[in-house]
Amino acid sequence: MFGNMIANMMVKPFQSPLFDSPANYGLEYENVEFKARDDVTIRGWLIKSGTDRVIIQSHFGVQCNRAGYSPDGKGLIKPWKQDIPFLRQAKYLSDNGYSVLMYDLRGHGESDIGTTPWVSWGPEEAKHVIAAVDYISKHPDYRDASLGLLSICMGSASTTYAYGLDDGLRKYPGIKAMIAVQPLLYSYFVDAFGMPGFLQRAGSKVTAERLGFDLNTRSFLPDARQITVPTMVVQNKNDPWTNLEMVKEYYDNLAVEKEMKWLDIEKSRFAAYDFVGREPEKLFGWFDRHMMAKN
Questions:
Q1: Residue 6: is its pLDDT beyond 90?
Q2: What is the pLDDT of residues 13-26, one digit of tens each?
Q3: Helix residue ranges per DSSP H, the chain
Q4: Average pLDDT, stretch 113-141?
Q5: What is the pLDDT of residues 234-248, one digit of tens each?
Q6: How much is the pLDDT for 149?
C-alpha cells in the first residue's frame, strides 16, 4: 500500500490539467502537435513573434504542464499556494521578439501517454525534448532560426539526457543557448524531501516495477558533459528539496561557456519556478547574448 502511494506521488501521469491559455495574455499562437520517434503525440502552443529566435520550453514534472503549476486539485498540502503561470515568461519573450514553443511532455497536460506509461524523471521524456526541437527545426517559418532551450527541473534532466544520446540534441546546430532551472535527480529529491527510509524503499520498489529501471540508479550528471551550447544554471540556494552539491556537480560537469545564477529567495523549491516568470529580465539576457539574429 505504501509503495503504491509513494509511487503514485512520484510517477503517476496527468496530475495537472491545463489551466491557462496564451489568449489570456493577448498572444498570437496556434495549437500544435507532433510525433516523437516512439510515435507518442506531443501537443503544445506555438506563440508567434519573430522568426529569427525561438525558445523551446520544457516544464517540470508530475504536478506541472506547459501552462505551469496550479494548486487546484493538489490536496491539502500544496507546495505553492498560487498559480505559477509560465505564460508570463512567454509574454516577456514574445514582447522581446522571440517565438516560443510550449509543449506538454508525455503524460502531462494534453500530450499522450508514453510507451512507458509513467513519468520517468527524464530518460523517456528526453525523446520528446528531441521531438520538440526537431519540430521547430523543420518548421518552414523557423528553419533558419536560432533556438534556445528553457528547461525547468525535470525538463532540465530530460534535456540533459537528450544531449547524452548519440542521435540526440547534439545533432541540431540551430540550438545556441540553454537555461537549466533547478536540475534535480530523483534520489536526491526523496532524500531532501525527508521521506523515511522504509517509504523510500517501498516507493522505489514499485517505481522500478513500473518503469523497468530503478530511478535511484539513473543519473543525467555525466550527460552534462555532452551539452554543446552556452548554459546558465539557475538554483534557489534556499531550496529545501534538493542537494546543492548535486547542482554544483551538474554545473562543474558543463564543458561549455556557463554561468551559475544563485537565487536568494523564499525557502521553497517552487519559489524559483515562480521567479522565472516574475522577474524574467534577470535571466533572459543569457538568450539575448547568445541568440542574436543571423546576418
A1: no
A2: 888 899 999 999 99
A3: 2-11, 87-95, 126-138, 154-164, 186-192, 197-211, 244-253, 269-278, 285-290
A4: 95
A5: 999 999 999 999 999
A6: 98
Written as one letter, the residue type at 217 is T
Q: Write out the CATH class of domain 2-290.
A: alpha beta
Strands 84-85 and 99-103: unpaired
Q: State if pTM tops 0.85.
A: yes
Exposure of 30 by Cβ count < 10 A (0-12 exposed, 13-18 middle, 19+ buried)?
exposed
Closest CA to 191 of 233, 244, 154: 244
> What is the residue extent of each domain of the chain?
2-290
Cell numbers given for 256: 561549455
3-state secondary structure string across 151-196: EECHHHHHHHHHHHCCCCHHHCCCEEEEEEECCCCHHHHHHHCCCC
**For 183-220, how does the pLDDT look when each residue is reduced to its tens digit (9 = 90+)?**
999 988 888 777 778 888 888 898 899 989 898 999 99
Backbone angles phi, psi at 185, to 5 degrees: -90, 145
Question: CA-CA distance, 208 to 120, in Å (whole number)?
Answer: 10
Tell me which amino acid residue 116 is: T
Beta-bridge partner residues of 54: 99, 147
